[in-house]
Amino acid sequence: MGPPDTPFLKKCWLHIFYLLLLATTAAGQGARQYTFNHFGVSSGLASNEATDGLQDERGFIWVGTNNGLQRFDGQRYLSFHHEKGNPSSIPHNFIVQLLLDKKKNLWILTGNGKIGTFDTKRFIFHEVKVKVNDTSMLAYDKELIGDEQGNLFILFQNNDFITWNEQQQEFAAIHNFIRLPADWKFTDILQQP
Question: Cα 23 vs. chain centroid, distance in angstroms?
Fold first, then answer.
């Protein structure tokens, strides 16, 4: 038996060397640099406590705070507060949740439990009806939930949920299309893709 084929071994070692070289080159690339800006009360934010935020289709950032609703255009804030005696202003300064639906409507849930849409062009709040069988549910923690088909729900934590009906302009259990046992309590609704 003779010595192993050295050209073959050289070729194998050359391939291994190239693979290692590529691996170290790929791993040796520098980290990307990101720039962060911190916004607070000194830069125009209504409060240091932002409760929710989202970006609309026109690029505006909407921020819910414990001191009103704000729209940020990248340069400045436009603030919206409750105005006593003005039914088209937001009904409460504590914004619990913001939600942008499939039709690009901005929904607001406020600290006093009021729910409605905020016209992002005319800056008018429109409260919607919330019908429940047991009025004590109105005191429960609430959450607005939307699905991929555009359905909207109000979830009453550890209790029940009701569904939005656009024709009737109301949230009510009679519009629920999901039927579950009456003794079930809900903690969340999530659509499975």
Answer: 39
Query: Containing H/E element for 1?
Result: none
Q: Measure the N-to-C terminal CA separation of the chain; round to a whole number of Å.
A: 64
Token pair for 183:
């003794």
Distance CA 63, CA 46 (A): 9
Backbone phi and psi for residue 14, each to the nearest 5 degrees, phi listed first: -65, -40
Task: Give per-residue pLDDT as tens, 87-128.
Answer: 999 999 999 999 999 999 999 999 999 999 999 999 999 999
DSSP symbol at 138: G
Nearest Cα residue to 171 out of 190, 154, 150, 159:
154
CATH 2.40.10 fits 42-119, yes or no: yes
Domain extents in the chain: 42-119, 128-186
Helix (H) or strand (E) holding 95: strand 95-100
Q: What percent of the residues of the chain are helix, what percent strand, and what percent coil, each to the nearest 5?
A: 15, 30, 50
